[in-house]
Amino acid sequence: MPGSIDWLLLAYRLPREPSTPRISVWRKLGRLGVAKLGDGLVALPADARTQEQLEWIADEIVEAGGEATLWKSRSASARAEKQLIARMAEAIEAEYERVIAAAAEAEARGPGGGQAIAQLRREVRRIAKRDYFPPPNRDAAHRAVESLKADRVGS
Amino acid sequence: MKWATRAGCHVDRAACAWLIKRFVDAEAGFVFVDDPDDVPEDATPFDMRGVELSHHEGNCTFETVLRHYGLDDPVLWDVARIVHEADLADERFDAPEAPGLDVICRGLSMVLDDNAVLAATQPIFDGLYEYRRRALLLGKDTL
């Protein structure tokens, strides 16, 4: 049985040196939450935003002297697709887990720490942007950070 | 002059249209296309893959347009910081205004067509420019 989601696949190759564009591209792909399928092959569920972002990254790779092509595809196997989705959700789950732990730490430190709270709020927003397949601890992470804010208001 | 960009305008294209109209070509008219091959011969394309006025080396199109036309007004570069983060959110700059601007432009594109989005965002960018101009003048982050 084939998969049921449209995926965007970015196949790319970048020269080993200089390393700056390689790092810049890898950071951008990481921020988008891509799933790595192989060397120089990453995947994201297809929508207008992911397509535009991956197109810009493809252009950046070509400008840096590399090669990049963007493909729209379906998995031939529903099972493989399910595994990929589970892997992506697990990665996000681990990120939310770290947020929950950091929120508990901030809570334990008591009032103050406005900067740490602002940083956690930014972090949760960043993760939410690449949270294509929300894991079960998503709400808990958002709540943990929101409650920090609520505690501090008026204190 | 005629200018062409992709249909479904978000923050970078709306900001560029404002920038072009205010600082490059007061008579600018805009057309929206779905495919780069559909750009009319007499139009200058922007914010599309493979054209000069687009994303380059991690810059958004707004920054490319500023550089291309040699616009060195520091207020415009300050607005560029906000547009860059609203468009790319890559944290190259600290721009707390950016998530709000992104939401406003996204929301407008849900209820208006492209021409109406450009019309509606003109006063928004006029206001943003004026706010940042005064803030820079006073050397403050916010007024």
Summarize the structure.
Chain A has 155 residues and is of the alpha+beta class. Chain A is 60% helix and 15% strand. By secondary structure, chain B is mainly alpha-helical.
Blueprint (SSEs and pairs):
The complex is a heterodimer of chains A (155) and B (143).
Chain A: E1 7-13, H1 19-32, E2 35-38, E3 41-45, H2 48-63, E4 67-73, H3 78-109, H4 114-129, H5 138-152
Antiparallel strand pairs in A: 1-3, 1-4, 2-3
Chain B: E1 2-6, H1 11-24, E2 29-33, E3 43-45, H2 61-68, H3 74-88, H4 98-111, H5 114-138
Parallel strand pairs in B: 1-2, 1-3
Helix pairs in contact in B: 1-2, 1-5, 3-4, 3-5
Task: Provide a descriptive summary of the structure in words.
The complex is a heterodimer of chains A (155) and B (143). Chain A has helices at 19-32, 48-63, 78-109, 114-129, 138-152, and strands at residues 7-13, 35-38, 41-45, 67-73. With 155 residues, chain A is an alpha+beta fold. In chain A, strands 2-3-1-4 form a 4-stranded antiparallel β-sheet, with helices on both faces. Chain B has 143 residues and is mostly helical. In chain B, 53% of the residues lie in helices and 9% in strands. Chain B has 5 helices and 3 strands, in the order E-H-E-E-H-H-H-H. Chain B has a 3-stranded parallel β-sheet with strand order 2-1-3, with helices on one face. In chain B, helix 1 links the parallel strand 1 (2-6) and strand 2 (29-33). In chain B, helix 1 (11-24) packs across helix 5 (114-138), helix 3 (74-88) packs across helix 4 (98-111) and helix 3 packs across helix 5. Chain B is globular, with a radius of gyration of 14 Å. Chain B starts with a strand and ends in a 5-residue tail after the last helix. The model of chain B has no long low-confidence stretch (mean pLDDT 94). Classes of the chains: A alpha+beta (155), B mainly alpha (143). The A-B interface holds A 24, 27-28, 31, 48, 55-56, 59-60, 63, 125, 129 and B 8, 49-50, 54-58, 88-90, 99.
Pick out its properties.
A: 155 residues; 5 helices; 4 strands; B: 143 residues; mainly alpha; 9% strand; globular
